[in-house]
Write a structure and sequence with these properties.
This protein is 38% helix and 27% strand. The radius of gyration is 24 Å and the shape is globular. It is of the alpha+beta class. A hairpin with a 5-residue loop joins strand 2 and strand 3. The chain starts with 5 loop residues before the first strand and ends with a helix. About 1% of the residues have low confidence. The protein has a domain of 60 residues: ATPase, nucleotide binding domain (Nucleotidyltransferase, domain 5). The strands form five sheets. It has a five-stranded mixed β-sheet.
Length: 440
């Protein structure tokens, strides 16, 4: 890959697969160099169910992105979502051997590693362990315990769990498409990074990413991710309902939804009719827009209500957990007419549609800033961030080696800078890579 500062996001979705190439410009914003997309055939509800088809779709998207940007793609950051993702809250503690020493990174590592030993259902694996807040010797609500004294360190964690086999299958597809896995990220987190502002994450916000096969939810408060969920319905079930309800083929149903669909039935007059050509030699069908929006409305209400149950599970109704910034909708499904009004009506929370231009360079292509590309943009940003971390570590190491050399000439030794601890996803990525290398 040319230059160190180029990163590629690969969003393996149910409807489309997107490869997006981006780099950091001099203002620290992400600049999108090229984008490629292909129809996703081997993915159902966020889970790969046909490896061969998925590999072909990935290759097609990657080739298109390479052609658009003139950059050769070797490594990608992929997102994982799908109906097998679930999350739970868990508290854990460690007792420190020496309370006279201040708490440091290693103590937190020990605590986080302990959470990873939790026993899951067979075939499940912990993907993310996200600390919420800490307690030191019973003193609660500590945001950052490093540097404090104490014998007992405990924390609340938000733990995200997924199926090992699904994650490995995605790794397999990427590898067989001739690419290296640079990193794995949870898709709701990627989308959130692309469309939410820091203020919203502080105030409390729920990001709802309505994809083709799944609807992802990520809740932030005080700048920290508090809750995640994947609901196994998305835009495709709406299309299915239109197809069944109007007895038309899928392609027509999808076009109807995009062109004339609305989530709010009250606004269509009874006499607004669309005529759809019949299949070979059959009469055209006449469909009233009122009926169309009734079908859409029924399914959208169901999806939003499920999401709202998750928002309530998080505890939005408690005063100190209130989500002041309300809801941000993104993903292809968020482009449905009048969806914002319907969501506000059902949840009573302020709602806006989120476009992934929060961290993009000005003058980015309109296509890139469409909500349908939120996850891809988030994955590119994630890859850029990961690279920055690695180059910082390398620079720090080089400096250390230089100083080591000086020290032999009797000069002052500079303490080695502390490496940032590896997030579990990095470890997971390594394990998936190892697994694939050994499985060959």
């Amino acid at each position: 890959m040319e230059g160190n500062n180029i990163s590629v996001g690969l969003d393996i979705g149910t409807t489309k697969i997107v490869a997006m190439i981006g780099r950091k410009n001099e203002y620290g914003k992400a600049e999108i160099l090229g984008i490629g997309k292909s129809k996703s055939l081997g993915v159902h509800r966020g889970v790969v169910n046909n490896i061969t088809q998925t590999i072909q779709s990935i290759q097609q998207a990657v080739q298109e992105a390479e052609a658009a940007s003139g950059v050769k793609i070797d490594e990608v950051t992929v997102g994982i979502a799908g109906q097998h993702i679930r999350s739970l809250q868990h508290s854990d503690y460690i007792t420190r051997d020496n309370a006279e020493l201040v708490i440091d990174e290693d103590d937190i590592d020990r605590l986080v590693n302990q959470v990873h030993k939790l026993v899951m259902l067979p075939g499940e694996e912990i993907i993310h362990v996200l600390p919420q807040d800490y307690k030191v010797d019973g003193q609660a609500e500590i945001k950052e315990p490093i540097g404090m004294y104490g014998g007992r360190l405990e924390a609340h964690f938000h733990v995200v769990v997924g199926q090992v086999s699904s994650i490995r299958n995605i790794g397999r597809c990427v590898k067989s498409a001739g690419l290296e896995l640079e990193g794995i990220t949870l898709e709701p987190l990627a989308s959130a990074n692309a469309v939410l502002s820091q203020e919203e994450k502080e105030a409390g916000v729920a990001l709802i990413d309505i994809g083709g096969g799944t609807t992802d939810l990520a809740i932030f408060r005080d700048g920290i991710i508090r809750h995640t969920a994947v609901i196994p319905f998305g835009g495709n079930v709406i299309t299915e309902d239109i197809k069944e309800g109007c007895s038309i083929i899928e392609k027509q149903a999808e076009l109807l939804k995009i062109k004339f669909g609305s989530a709010w039935p009250g606004e269509n007059k009874d006499n607004e009719i669309v005529s759809i050509p019949g299949l070979r030699g059959r009469e055209p069908k006449e469909i009233t827009l009122k009926n169309l929006s009734k079908i859409i409305h029924a399914r959208v209400v169901e999806i939003i209500e499920q999401v709202y149950v998750e928002i309530k599970n998080y505890g939005h109704e408690e005063q100190k957990k209130k989500l002041i910034a309300g809801i941000v909708l993104t993903g292809g499904g968020s482009q449905l007419k009048h969806l914002k009004q319907l969501v506000e009506y059902i949840t009573g929370m302020d709602t806006r549609v989120g476009y992934p231009n929060e961290h993009l360079a000005g003058g980015s292509d309109d296509e890139v800033t469409s909500p349908a590309f939120a996850t891809a943009v988030g994955l590119v940003m994630d890859g850029l961030r990961r690279q920055e971390k690695i180059s910082l570590e390398n620079a720090a190491e080089e400096e250390y080696n230089l100083n080591e050399g000086d020290a032999q000439n009797g000069e002052q030794v500079v303490e080695q800078p502390k490496k940032e601890r590896k997030s579990f996803l990095d470890k997971l990525t390594e394990r998936v890579k190892d697994f694939l290398d050994n499985a060959e």
